Structures are given as structure tokens and as C-alpha cells.
Amino acid sequence: MKVSSVVSGLIMGAVMSASAIAADSYTIDSRHTFPTFEINHLGFSTQRGRFNDATGKIMLAPSQNSGSIEVSIDTASIDMGIDAWDKIMRGEDFFNVAKFPAMTFKSTKIMFDGDKVVGAEGDFTLLGVTRPVMLDVKGFSCGTHPINKKALCGADITATIRRSEFGMTKYVPGISDIVRIEIPVEAFRD
Questions:
Q1: 107 upstream amide cis, omega within 30 of 0
Q2: pLDDT tens, position by position, 59-102
Q3: What letter would DSSP give residue 13?
Q4: What 8-state DSSP symbol labels residue 163?
Q5: Helix runs in 5-131, H state only
Q6: pTM (predicted TM-score)
Q7: Whole-angstrom Cα distance, residue 170 to residue 42?
């Protein structure tokens, strides 16, 4: 389960320039933002998957300790590494991508330590169910991309959810209810 994108992801949304007075706008780089998830499988191993398509916008005003994050993850982009497994995960028992093509995260609060984003609270929607989720942000940093010379921010985001709270109950507890989400995020300033 991702979050994603939680995820979600994208708290990285915490992308910004430390000297900005007005809010800066950032667009998540889909080529470097892949929400992943891990879940215990029958008590024997930790299984992992990822989503290959995440988009989003981030607004940040670090001098005011404010901003917003909106992320959307294409649920059909799930990648378990095996086509047959991907098909099962896209089905009605899990992500039900025909009915719910996206999962989303929309922040309600961003937490700062000085000018660094360290966390975010917000609403995560999966399978049509919206619940509050807390994201932990590590390694938040901004700078200039060494190749294209554009302003860029990045971070590593984590969250933990209970999939049953969103209606995804197939095989619980054999396949764990607890899902850990990890999201490496990069976003370019618009």
C-alpha cells in the first residue's frame, strides 16, 4: 500500500527555498518519486511493491512556516515485479483500480524545524475512504539540480497505515493489516 503518496508523498512537498517570503510552487518530479510499500506476508517475509506514477503540487512559504501538499498516485501503476501479481493487486480485493483509479494525499498542516520540513498531517484517500495520516520527513534539502540547473527540493517520507481502516481487508491478519509506506520525493520549483 503506498500512501502515498501519500503520499503520501509527497510531503516532500516541503520543497522550498529557505529565503522565499511568498509561497513558492513546486511540481513533483514523477521520474524520481516512486511511492513504495512493505507488508508482512504470512509471518514469513516482508513483501514490497511500488507505484510508478505519482504527481503533485507543493506550495511552501518557509519564512511563515506554512504551505500545502497535494499528491495523486495512479493505483493502476502498481508494480510488484510480476505481471500476474500486479493484476491481483489491481483487482477488487485490493486497489480496485477500475473503481478507484487514484489515491490521494492533501495536507492540513506542515511541520517545520527552522526552515526544514520535518512532517505533515493530512487526509489520505484510498478506496474512497479518507482518513488522517501523519507523514515523517527526513533529509529535507533544497538546492540546484547539477544537470538542468533548476531549483529542486527532495526528502524521504515515511508513514504507517492500517489497510483495514480503508476497507482493504482481504487476508487480514495473515497478510498484515499494518503497511509501511516509504516515498523518496523530488520536486522542481515552477
A1: no
A2: 888 888 888 889 999 999 999 999 999 999 999 999 999 999 99
A3: G
A4: G
A5: 83-90
A6: 0.84
A7: 13
Handedness of CA 106, 109, 111, 114 (dihedral sign): positive
Is the pLDDT at 180 greater than 90, yes or no?
yes
**Measured between alpha carbons, how far is 110 from 124 in angstroms, rounded to an integer?**
14
What CA–CA distance (Å, rounded) separates 7 from 73?
Answer: 7
SS3 content of the chain, % helix, strand, coil (to 5): 10, 55, 35
Q: Would you mind telling me the total number of residues written for the chain in this entry?
A: 190
Is the pLDDT assigned to residue 12 strictly greater than 80?
no
User: Residue 116 CB: number of other CB atoms within 10 A?
Assistant: 17
Residue 155 contacts residue 8 (beta carbons within 8 Å): no
Amino acid occupying residue 91:
G
Cell numbers 506554512: residue = 66
Q: Out of 3.90.1170.50, 2.40.50.140, 3.40.50.720, 2.40.128.110, which CATH number does the structure's domain 11-189 have?
A: 2.40.128.110
Peptide bond into 173 cis (omega under 30): yes
Q: How many C-beta atoms surround the C-beta of residue 68 within 10 A? A: 19
> Rounded CA gap, 94 and 1, in Å?
9
Lookup result for grid cell 520536486? 187
pLDDT at position 17 is 35
SS3 of residue 91 by DSSP: coil
